[in-house]
Design goal:
Blueprint: H1 3-11, H2 41-54, H3 58-72
Helix pairs in contact: 2-3
């Protein structure tokens, strides 16, 4: 199917699932890389307390908080949706 046919079918609301190769689909920039970080004990205790309060794991809260902070530091975070960059929660 060419792009014009794909667009036409999308515009009229037809299902396009059979035209997509989902086995080959990849979400870019979401590969995992393991890093080791040493935290002071007081920080780990506060992270654990907050994670327990929220019902999430320590790793999850660290990843979400870091992602949120990194988003705040982006020059134009408001245009992220069209940039191909994952949002803070998508990347965790």
């Amino acid at each position: 199917m060419n792009s014009s046919e794909f667009d036409r079918r999308f515009d009229v609301g037809e299902s396009l699932m059979e035209a997509l190769d989902l086995d080959g689909a990849r979400r870019t920039r979401l590969q995992q890389k393991r890093v080791n970080v040493d935290f002071p004990l007081w920080m780990v205790e506060r992270l654990d307390h907050e994670a327990t309060r929220l019902g999430v794991t320590r790793q999850s809260i660290i990843k979400v908080w870091l992602a949120e902070r990194l988003e705040q530091g982006r020059p134009d975070a408001s245009t992220q949706a069209g940039s191909g960059q994952p949002s803070a929660l998508e990347s965790c």
